[in-house]
């Protein structure tokens, strides 16, 4: 649900999963065949996992981080992992890069530049996200929703960001 001022988008679990399914349909209808899904952790883990299951393709993981300040709402220095975790040895062939959104677009742009320059076994690379914000400097190959008001997206699992083990214990202790 988008707030009236367009500054916040609240997404339920059902909506979130429906959007991932719509992303899968877009990719399928394009007809592009790929060998591996590479998701960017953390945001791309959930969409990557679901797409991996739908397309029955191996899931590789690359860790990136840029949102640390003020509860993850302020973008900071971009860190990109030096290694990719993949069940097939080295990532190669046609790769679908998955993240949750193209916010500023800097992360996706930097990762794609890195993959193209340092991973020669990748023969083709395309990108897929759930949301693309208008301010993004990068346009993914596949996206479900374009967000012209650039809202902050409140994803359904963000409640865990402020919940530690003691809060879980308190919640489940009768």
UniProtKB/TrEMBL annotation:
InterPro entries in the record: PRTase-like, PRTase_dom
Domain Phosphoribosyltransferase residue range list: 12-158
Alphabetized GO MF terms: glycosyltransferase activity
CDD domains linked to this entry: PRTases_typeI
Swiss-Prot/TrEMBL keywords: Glycosyltransferase, Transferase
Lineage: superkingdom: Bacteria
Pfam families (alphabetical): Pribosyltran
Protein name listed in UniProt: Xanthine phosphoribosyltransferase
Protein source organism: Paracidovorax wautersii
């Amino acid at each position: 649900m988008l707030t009236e001022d367009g500054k916040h988008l609240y997404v339920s679990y059902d909506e979130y999963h429906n959007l991932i399914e719509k992303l899968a349909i877009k990719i399928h209808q394009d007809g592009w065949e790929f060998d591996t899904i590479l998701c960017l952790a953390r945001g791309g883990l959930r969409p990557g996992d679901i797409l991996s299951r739908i397309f029955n393709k191996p899931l590789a993981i690359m860790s990136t981080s840029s949102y640390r300040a003020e509860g993850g709402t302020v973008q900071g220095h971009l860190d990109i992992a030096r290694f990719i975790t993949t069940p097939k040895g080295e990532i190669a062939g046609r790769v679908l890069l998955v993240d949750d959104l193209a916010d500023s677009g800097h992360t996706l742009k930097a990762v794609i530049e890195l993959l193209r320059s340092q991973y020669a076994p990748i023969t083709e690379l395309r990108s897929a996200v759930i949301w693309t914000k208008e301010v993004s400097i990068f346009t993914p190959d596949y996206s479900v929703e374009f967000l012209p008001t650039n809202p902050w997206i409140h994803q359904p699992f963000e409640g865990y960001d402020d919940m530690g083990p003691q809060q879980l214990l308190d919640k489940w202790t009768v």
